[in-house]
Design brief:
By secondary structure, this protein is mainly β. It has a domain at 17-75: Beta Barrel (OB fold (Dihydrolipoamide Acetyltransferase, E2P)). Helix content is 0%, strand content 17%. The chain contains no helices and five strands. It has a five-stranded mixed barrel. The chain is rod-shaped, with a radius of gyration of 37 Å. The chain starts with 16 loop residues before the first strand and ends in a 137-residue tail after the last strand. Pfam families: DUF3540. It comes from Chania multitudinisentens RB-25. This is DUF3540 domain-containing protein.
């Protein structure tokens, strides 16, 4: 009986999905994942939104064309560090017929070169608000302010209006270095008692002066 010995290498079975540890992140965004003592070169799948970090345990999948993809991060090496969810290109998060809620126990931060908020109705409730900016421009049809106290400090204040109505129930104080009032047609000052005093000169100039 003749025995035929073959030197052909038997194929090594590789499962379609397996896990491994991320050991390196290359400059082009691809990754090296170590599994079963071997390093596997793979790319991050579009469905893997959580950015892999070195030391993470990840799930890999092999496609029909023998490409390897990192599908998901199974376990983070350093859970205490900030987790980053990132995608390439624009991202749109939408709900169909439902609501979208973003909540955080500590801080919710938004950072962008341009911020655009559009809504038919809006409610904003903030305990303490501090705004810092170079310029603020607002165009509204109707504005209402209700509060207990208002304080404002300006270097220069310019106000242009067609009609201004101001009603003070108690006392109004104005302290100015120089005070100049000018009316084009009619000026009226009326009170139960009127007191006009000056330290140097008081001048009344008109074509007609009626007293009494």
């Amino acid at each position: 009986m003749n025995t035929v010995t073959s030197s052909q290498v038997l194929p090594v079975y590789s499962p379609p999905q397996f896990s491994g540890q991320v050991v390196d992140i290359l400059f082009d965004g691809s990754l090296i994942v170590e599994s079963a003592g071997r390093g596997w070169h793979c790319r991050r799948a579009a469905s893997c939104l959580l950015t892999p970090e070195t030391g993470d345990i990840a799930l890999l999948a092999r496609s029909d064309d023998e490409k390897l993809w990192l599908l998901a991060v199974l376990e983070r090496a350093q859970p205490q560090q900030v987790a980053q969810i990132s995608v390439t290109g624009d991202l749109n998060i939408a709900t169909l017929g439902g609501s979208l809620t973003l909540s955080s126990e500590r801080q919710l931060a938004l950072e962008s070169q341009r911020l655009q908020v559009k809504s038919a109705h809006g409610d904003c409730t903030i305990g303490n608000l501090a705004y810092h900016g170079e310029e603020l421009s607002a165009r509204v049809t109707l504005s209402r302010w209700v509060g207990e106290r208002c304080e404002s400090v300006w270097h220069t204040l310019t106000q242009l209006s067609t009609v201004i109505f101001r009603q003070v129930s108690k006392t109004e104080h104005v302290r100015a270095g120089q005070l100049d009032y000018q009316a084009e047609d009619y000026a009226r000052l009326h009170a139960r008692s009127t007191l006009i005093t000056s330290e140097t000169i008081t001048k009344i100039d008109s074509e007609q002066i009626h007293v009494g």
